[in-house]
UniProtKB/TrEMBL annotation:
Positions of the UniProt region annotated as Disordered: 301-335
Domain Sugar phosphate transporter: from-to ranges: 23-297
UniProt-recorded name of the protein: Nucleotide-sugar transporter family protein
Organism from which the protein derives: Actinidia rufa
UniProt-listed Pfam families: TPT
CC terms in the record's Gene Ontology section: membrane
Superkingdom of source: Eukaryota
């Protein structure tokens, strides 16, 4: 296959993976909003446990049908991943409860700088000036759209700190484990989803009772709410899978930057389906700034030197210098 056609095929698969993630993520946000706001099912942690239980069932069926090949993930790595993932879910849920909406949004925006720091320290990634500036533009645009009142308290800050760092580490580990053990997205989900489902279904009801003062077993499970719960769990399978696919194909930082496109889409869909309350000039301006930043990031990070491993760039520069020295010495011999 020609290099051009390979690049075109990769670009097409990247776009398909990203669109899969956007559709499932926006879909689950809309379904969960209806489930919680309309039917009063406010048990977010327990619902996430049900999501992973459904994902576990899906991976078990696919493994039984032969679509998922046997693979190995060492228990220490599995344990670290599950700890990061569960602290991410719990930390962000508690942060939303203890913080103002404005500070919660700022905490979510800070995941990009944290993910960048992890890649710089752990993977020796170097970002170009344009890539850094484009990330700053994305953050500015989303902040203008979403950040309103900002008030900080000690326990809310601690919850946000735990949520942000554990989320960044969990997303870093998705990419790291797939690369280190040559795991497909299905393989990694097959290892992690059962453990996450078990732990979240155990701690979820207690955490949700602490956060909402309501018991999950006391909820009125009528036909309509049960249908929405099943629908949420079904879409969550695609959301979990598409997240692993996207982070595996891109990186945690790229996933975070592109993820803010979902924030913009959710805002737009909210204005379309739920009325134009809150739509004003500074929100529209923020959307425009964020989209410009995302386009700039895609362009800047794809250029040579936009985002690369430091060791590779150093070795290539050494080879170039060595080549230049060889050429000059050959020229001296000819003279």
């Amino acid at each position: 296959m020609a290099p051009g056609s390979k690049a075109d095929k990769k670009a097409a698969v990247d776009v398909a993976a990203w669109m899969f993630n956007v559709v499932t993520s926006v879909g689950i946000i809309i379904v969960n909003k209806a489930l919680m706001a309309t039917y009063g099912f406010t048990f977010a942690t327990t619902l996430t446990g049900l999501h992973f239980a459904t994902t576990t069932l899906m991976t078990a069926v696919l493994r039984g049908l032969g679509y998922i090949q046997p693979s190995h993930l060492p228990f220490p790595d599995l344990l670290k991943f599950v700890l990061f993932a569960n602290f991410s879910i719990v930390g962000m849920n508690v942060s939303l409860m203890w913080n103002s909406v404005g500070f919660y949004q700022i905490a979510k925006l800070s995941m990009i700088p944290v993910s960048c720091l992890l890649e710089v320290v752990l993977d020796k990634i170097r970002y170009s000036r344009d890539t850094k500036l484009s990330i700053a533009v994305v953050l500015l645009g989303v902040a203008v759209c979403t950040v309103t009142d900002v008030s900080v308290n000690t326990r809310g800050f601690i919850a946000a700190f735990v949520g942000v760092w554990s989320t960044a580490l969990q997303q870093y580990y998705v990419h790291f484990l797939q690369r280190k053990y040559s795991l497909s997205s299905f393989n990694l989900l097959g290892h992690t989803a059962p453990v996450q489902a078990a732990t979240l279904l155990v701690i979820g009801p207690f955490l949700d009772y602490w956060l909402t003062n309501k018991r999950v077993d006391g909820f009125d499970y009528n036909l309509a709410s049960s249908v929405f719960i099943v629908l949420s769990c079904t879409i969550a399978v695609g959301t979990n899978l598409s997240q692993f696919i996207c982070i595996g194909r891109f990186t945690a930082v790229s996933f975070q930057v592109l993820g803010h496109m979902k924030t913009i889409l959710v805002l737009i869909l909210g204005f379309i389906f739920f009325g134009k309350e809150g739509l004003n000039l500074h929100v529209v301006l923020g959307m425009v700034i964020a989209v410009i930043g995302m386009v700039w990031y895609g362009n800047a990070s794809s250029k040579p030197g936009g985002k690369e491993r430091r060791s590779l760039s150093m070795s290539s520069s050494r080879q170039q210098k060595h080549g230049n020295l060889s050429e000059s010495s050959e020229g001296d011999d000819k003279v």
